[in-house]
Amino acid sequence: MSLVNKKYYALGTVINLTVATPAGEEELEAAYELIKNFEDKLTVNRDKSEVMSINHMAGIKPVTVPSDTYALIKRAVLVSRQHLGFNVAIGPLVKLWKIGFKGANKPSDADIQERLRIIDPERIQLDDTKETVFLEEKGMEIDLGGIAKGYIADKIKELWSGMDVETGIIDLGGNVLLVGPSLHEDRMWNIGVQNPVEKRDVSLGVLRTTAKSIGTSGIYERKLVIDGHEYHHMFDSKTGYPIKNNLASVTIVSDKSIDGEVWSTIGFYQGIEKGLALIESQPGIEAIFITKDLEYKTTSGLRDKFFKI
């Protein structure tokens, strides 16, 4: 048995897909087609998509979307309404700062205050019967960037399961979802966790695990430096500024990749003490918190599974 790997570019990042033989090209291409299909539906980086059809009608009228898109939006809205740090309505604020994109800047306080008014998830109306979504005010936008990759990874795992893929790795820009046992004798996986102050693929430690999702939110991916101040792309919906704490990254280990995306964002927002306690109380969700000083803490379920290099 050997591994077959292909690299693609989609979802604004490098996609790495790997399957063990006898699976191969057909299973990899099927996964890539699925990714492109969901990107067409969910993106906010193009003028047309199912999500953009909702954004274009903000303040005007509700928009009907297909059942799968509606279910994903509903999940994102309900999580956002818990006000734990994940916010599907944060799009207008992200677009104001543009961190990681052309024209990145530190906006004026007045512009930030204006956006804070319209990034309220309570002002998104959902109708389960008609499967419509309505943004109550013009300028409001939903952005599934913080949840879509996890959702798509889970869908690939489902697809591969139906194609009898026994072992595989779904890596959507660093969000990793493992399928089946590894090819090592003990069938366990060893996954590197990024050192947040080093270049990509330099690990701080290794996680030894069965087939799980490993998803990270960190400040090292995109940032803006102005007058010696560093601003990262993880925003606080209450202040309109990047989240202020001593964390560099939060890695979540879970069964589903969508849970990893949601909880890594919440964990980062909550900070190391509150975040650890909150995640400790979630069944099936484990976490590794790494500070800017490269100190780390894990939830109890990972104490004998994560090893610093």
From TrEMBL:
Keyword Metal-binding: yes
Keywords of this entry: FAD, Flavoprotein, Magnesium, Metal-binding, Transferase
Cofactor: Mg(2+); Mn(2+)
Coiled-coil blocks: none
Reaction(s) this enzyme catalyzes, per UniProt: L-threonyl-[protein] + FAD = FMN-L-threonyl-[protein] + AMP + H(+)
Pfam families: ApbE
Alphabetical list of InterPro entries matching this protein: ApbE, ApbE-like_sf
Signal peptide: none
One MF annotation (Gene Ontology) recorded for this entry: metal ion binding
Textual note on the cofactor: Magnesium. Can also use manganese.
The UniProt record lists the keyword Magnesium: yes
Residues the record lists as binding Mg(2+): 146, 265
EC number, UniProt record: 2.7.1.180
PANTHER family the record matches: FAD:PROTEIN FMN TRANSFERASE, THIAMINE BIOSYNTHESIS LIPOPROTEIN APBE
Family that this chain belongs to: Belongs to the ApbE family.
Name of the protein: FAD:protein FMN transferase
